[in-house]
Amino acid sequence: MNVKTSTHRKMHNYKIFQYLSTESIEPREFLRYCFGIDKFTSEAILEEEIRFGYSTRCINLISKLLGMQKKTVREWGDNPNFEGMPQHARKTCSYAQIALSPKVLTGIASRRDYTAPRLSAMQFVEETLLNGLSPSERLKEVSSTKFRGQYLTLLSETLKISKRTIYLWGTDIELPKMPKYHQHTLAYAFAAYRKKQQQSIAA
Fold first, then answer.
1. Cys-Cys crosslink for 83: which of 77, 109, 121, 165, Cβ 3.0 to 4.6 Å?
2. Beta-carbon contacts of residue 120 (< 8 Å; ≥ 6 apart)
3. HSE, side-chain direction, 13 A CA sphere, residue 196
4. Which of 14, 19, 6 has its CA nearest to residue 200?
């Protein structure tokens, strides 16, 4: 692979940052989007939020979307504000909002068979930094002295956590100690990236 092609590929793979939100969404705003009431008037939104069953739907959706127990979600504070929602969960919600339509998200809340998607660190790296490379190109890329720094940057920027934290998950590229909830974040982040990428191509 020549230098020009390598540089182009690197720039292309890091476009993921252009497509993904840098800010974490507030839980209440996210839930309004999910249930299709975010464009209502303030009075109509409040009416929907105090409607019987809304709180239950919020708990069901967030727990299924994040792959967490309902008990855990309830511990995050008053519904639907959930002020205590961890930053990693807020980040996951922001990616899910990009990746999924309100219709899909509303459906998840009522489904019993929904399983939150997961991507390992290696799978995420393969779908971004290594996507489209031939076997020989992949070997050359992974063997490069710059590769570890590239994939650490990719994960750090996507998850919005420090590289120091990622180091604690292991020195192997598989990062075997990565918490499962970060794998959910990577799955929604990649889905959001692909959706935005396809929209950009179609435009």
1. 77
2. 174, 175, 178, 183, 186
3. 18
4. 19
